[in-house]
Every structure is written in C-alpha cells, then in structure tokens.
Write a sequence for this structure.
C-alpha cells in the first residue's frame, strides 16, 4: 500500500523540512504556495495608514507519496521539524493512494515512487 502525506507548514520552515525529509529517505515531493486559515484565522495589518484584515495566511503545502511502512516516520519528521510551538504551525493528513504510476516506465505503486 502507498500513502499520500499532505502537510501544510509555515513557509520559512520549508527548506529545513525538505532537508530532514531527504535525510529520512524521501526521494521526491510536490510543493505549492497556498493561503489558508484555521485557528489563526488571519490577522490585521496596516497599509498606507489604513488597517485591514488579512483573512488568509501564507502557507506551504507539501505532498509526498511514500510506502506505507515509511508513513509514520515521515509524519514524525515533518512534525518535529516544522514545529515552532506557535499557532499556525500547520496540519498533516495521511491518505491511502489507490494507484501510482511512473509515466516514463509504467512502473506502478511502490515501484513508481
């Protein structure tokens, strides 16, 4: 079985998390700049003297597909590395992947990652 791990983290933690994941054996990942809100629910900023609400906070979404046997270790690595102890550190979701295919070779599932 193959797992998809989706993690949202603070942008300044990306490089540190990437390095830790590489050391843990992750061979590839997809990264997207996103905006979202949760417990943080935005904040206010001053722009040209006017205060306004920023409802969405910048985050980075990391998507990693790994063998099921690696999933817990990868979740722990992300949690430990991305954690600042402050609100907005992010979330991690782990999902089952029904099928994975490497386009170049046609390899499937664990062989494809």
């Amino acid at each position: 079985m193959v797992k998809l791990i989706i993690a949202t983290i603070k942008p300044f933690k990306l490089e540190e998390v990437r390095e830790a994941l590489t050391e843990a054996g992750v061979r590839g990942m997809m990264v997207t700049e996103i905006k979202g809100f949760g417990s943080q629910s935005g904040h206010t900023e001053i722009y040209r003297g006017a205060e306004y609400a920023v409802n969405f906070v910048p985050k980075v979404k990391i998507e990693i597909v790994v063998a099921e046997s690696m999933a817990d270790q990868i979740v722990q690595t992300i949690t430990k590395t991305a954690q600042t102890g402050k609100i907005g550190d992010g979330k991690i979701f782990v999902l089952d992947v029904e099928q994975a295919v490497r386009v170049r070779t046609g390899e499937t599932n664990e062989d494809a990652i």
Observations:
- The chain has one domain: 2-112.
- The mean pLDDT is 91.
- The helical segments are 14-23, 68-82.
- The radius of gyration is 17 Å.
